[in-house]
Amino acid sequence: MKLRAFSYLALALAFPLVTGIACADSIDIGTAAPFGVLGEAGVTNTGPSVVSGSVAGSSGTPAVTGFPPGSVVLPGVLNTTGVANSGPGTPFGDALAAYNYAAGLSGMNEGTASLGVGGVGGTLATALNTGIYSFTSATVLLNGTLFLNAGADNNARWIFQIPTALTTASASSVEVVDTGSGPFTGSITWDVGSSATLGSTTSFLGTIISKAGDSLDSAATIGCGRVISLDASVTLIDNSITTPGATGGCAQTTGSGPGGSGGTIGGGGGTIKTPEPGELAMLAVGLAALAFLGLRKSRARSAIC
Predict the structure, then answer these.
(1) Distance separating alpha carbons of residues 194 and 208, to the nearest angstrom
(2) DSSP secondary-structure letter at 124?
(3) Can you list the alpha helix ranges (DSSP code H) found in 60-155?
(4) Which residues in the chain land under pLDDT 50?
(5) Which of 102, 149, 203, 215 is the most exposed place for a label (fewest CB within 10 A)?
């Protein structure tokens, strides 16, 4: 009787853990994936920016200036005639579909909180687990370091829903901690309702998809991502952008690549107290197995009696 009671208790504990496991959706940006910079109203560069990924404006406003001294790393292509800016199967059309999809997901409401120092994800102890994070403030500020906890998963994914503007203070950074042992193939998506501005020497990670213009101040870098403005232009000033492969992954372990470095993608660093989805899954499976064995033994004893 006691064994059977324990089995039912184990099952009761296991099922909520299994059903509660969730992670951020993968955002498919389709034909926009090979691009490091897309600006619907064109792209302007000053200084020796390096982009690992293609660069283009739209077919309606194709102007791309400042290359050289800026450069595009092969197999990236510098497109001076623009690409289609609407409809499925076009870079801007697919980016818009990705933006709308990400905006429509249900996320954890962070309200008017800022990121980094004094805000969410500002210390290792408050590092953000994989998931979807939604904000309500007019401007979401990243100040200092934003820590993202991969939970030993190299395919970890985060989505940030920013209703209006995203701004980073100078020298701010994004850092992924507690990755697995191999290359990081996860993704970070920033869904921005108006404009994004990265302050000087910001070390950033992830793909920015915005509705308004985007500006990268002097020496700001983006690793494992790209910058896309759906309705306006992109301005670069001596920046480095490292774009993931067409699958959306990073395939890098330190945040560095041919186009320079963005934020840091770390290995086993970071001591996080919160149980991770993978750990919860293992616990759930273990409890379920114990429950199954317990029920079998209980039934066997009943048959013998």
Answers:
(1) 11
(2) G
(3) 91-103
(4) 1-25, 246-248, 252-260, 268-305
(5) 215
16: DSSP letter = H
Which of 216, 206, 210, 203 has its CA nearest to residue 248?
206
* pLDDT value for 141: 95
Instruction: Write down the pLDDT at residue 26.
Output: 58
Phi and psi based region of residue 248 (left: phi greater than 0; alpha: psi -120 to 50; beta: remaining): left
Query: Which DSSP letter does residue 118 get?
Result: T
Q: Report the pLDDT value the prediction gives residue 65, as an integer from 0 to 100.
A: 98
For position 264, what pLDDT does the model report?
Answer: 81
Q: Which of 281, 242, 231 is nearest to 35 (CA)?
A: 242
Whether 252 contacts 179, CB under 8 Å: no
Q: Nearest 5°: phi and psi at 224?
A: 55, 40
SS3 185: coil
At residue 283, the 3 state secondary structure works out as helix
What amino acid occupies position 236?
L
The answer for 297, left when phi > 0, alpha when psi is -120 to 50, beta otherwise, is alpha
The owner of tokens 């850092």 is 175
Radius of gyration of the chain (CA): 22
What is the distance of C-alpha 282 from the center of its chain?
25
Residue 115 forms beta bridges with which residues? Answer: 120, 142
Pair 61, 37: CB distance under 8 Å: no
Contacts of residue 186, defined as CB under 8 A and 6 or more positions apart, other chains included, come to 130, 150, 153, 154, 155, 156, 157, 158, 176, 249, 250
User: What angle, rounded to 10 degrees, do the helices at 2-20 and 277-304 form?
Assistant: 150
pTM score > 0.70 for this model? yes
**Local structure of residue 120 (DSSP, 8 states):** B
- State the pLDDT at residue 249: 54
Residue 245, φ and ψ in degrees, nearest 5: -70, 175
> Cα separation of 207 and 228, whole Å?
8
What pLDDT is stored for residue 67 in this prediction? 98
